[in-house]
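Q: Two folds, back to back.
A: First:
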Amino acid sequence: MNGHVHPVNARISGTIAEVLVEDNQVVPKGAVLVKLDPRDYQVSLQQAQAALKQARHQANVARANIGVIATTAQGQTTTAQGDIDAAAASVSTAEGSLAEAQAGVPAAKAQLAQVNANLVKARLDYQRYTQLYQTGAASVSNWIRQGRIMRRFWHNTRPSTNRDGKHRRGLCRHRRV
């Protein structure tokens, strides 16, 4: 074999469909030597196009879901804010009720002190009238009247009980004596 032999290296791999030169043929630089079978590349192209189409579809679905998710999230945020506002209003109402109840405690204590003072006065008056009656300085009617007054205070200030002996709420409101 005369001439220069140069090895040929392929830049890409593939199946050769047709050889365009003969053995030992002299070829100019840049001449096409073989044709590759395009089916392998067509399959790869179709796979890439299908993957691109699927990626675009997933992107479109994701864009559509963003709107739905954003709307749902906004609705849930609004609902949660409403729940927070309702809870805050309940706390505010409870604090107002507590403040009102606490404001009523001194008045109730003062009223209880007044009732106890009246009871003490009625007892002292009854004792005084008893002594006056025993010495003859007071009439029977005044002594009886003072006893009724004292018993009325006593009945109206003691805790009331029901038939089971359990305390009921409030002051006793028994029959007048």
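A: Second:
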Amino acid sequence: MESLVAIHSYRAALDTESGSLVDALASYDRAIELTEGLVASGQIEQREKLAKFYSQRLKPLAAMGENDLAIESHVRAIELLEDLYREGRLKDLSLLTRQKRDYATALAARGRADDAIAYLGEVLDFCEVESDITGVVNTLNRRGYLLMEMARMEEALGDFEQAVEMRRRLMIQGDSSLSVDLAAALHSKAECLERMGQLEEALKLYDEGKVLVEHCTDATASSWAKQIQSELEDLRTRCEQGLRSLR
């Protein structure tokens, strides 16, 4: 049966990439059905794979506009991952925290922004209890962007500032491989300042972020560095154009 699961999962991924969304969803549903059967038969180690199928199923659902089904898929994935966490069987905590952040984003997209913000507060508390610094930073960043969309700019800026300071502390402790992550946090804060009309302050953060990206020596982060560098350059262009228009 596991071989059939693998076939349906592979077919679903191919159909998703090719845009055959109905076929992709059918294949994910079949993979989920078969994996649920394996779990019911006692193969509880299959639950993490099952959670991943529910998560991967979200892409075709979102593209099809099936938002209610997407929410249900989020909830089921979180339930499975939380069970594994409580039992001490979850190997990668980031699977759970990332799923929770994505669920909050889905809530906001359904017009439940206040619920999303409150939920992300719970995710922050969970990450802090687990001493998951990366989870805390990523959650602050996600909440910051949602707050920006709600025009709650001061609160958003507070979240971005916390994320930057946490990244700085990690850099000071000697983890230079996080230089691009710090540059990304600086970009988020700068974007918030830009939207608040504080263009010169945003450009100062651009300068710092640019230096961090240019000095990145981690080959595994090269594509991430290029993405952040591009986003920083876009931000610089917008801020300089904005300043010129004010003169």
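Q: And?
A: Residues 222-246 form the longest helix (25 residues).
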